[in-house]
Design brief:
Elements: H1 2-36, E1 41-52, H2 57-66, E2 88-97, E3 103-111, E4 117-122
Antiparallel strand pairs: 1-2, 2-3, 3-4
């Protein structure tokens, strides 16, 4: 019976931890958008939140350079550090700019400590 209760407790703690990481990721992306967009926005939905090791340093560099071509960003954003082989978290976000009716979908790559946005990709 003790093992069963311990298993239930550990499962609940894991679930709560995962939820808080996702909430932290939502907050991090929202702060990034607040700091870097030239207009106000509304987030319609947060879609997929997961991890990946499949992003190469070349891909991160290309995404960072491509951000300058995305007109909604005022200036080139400051990104968190990235080292080769580092596991990244990603979150796909659907949002609308307040001066536009177009729905935008972007994928945000976050460091695994949820300290900052490493790169952004427009979908």
């Amino acid at each position: 019976m003790r093992k069963f209760l311990l298993s239930i407790t550990l499962a609940a703690m894991t679930l709560l931890s995962a939820c808080s990481n996702e909430d932290k990721a939502h907050s991090l992306v929202k702060d990034f958008l607040n700091d870097n967009l030239s207009v106000d926005f509304s987030i319609d939905s947060y879609q997929r939140f997961d991890s990946t090791k499949m992003v190469t340093p070349a891909a991160v560099q290309k995404m960072r350079e491509s951000v300058t071509e995305i007109k909604m960003y005022e200036n080139k954003p400051t990104f968190a550090d990235y080292t080769e082989g580092q596991q990244l978290l990603y979150l796909r976000v659907k949002f609308t700019l307040d001066d536009d009716t177009t729905k935008y979908v972007q994928t945000f790559y976050l460091d695994n400590q949820l300290q900052g946005v490493v790169a952004v990709k427009e979908n």
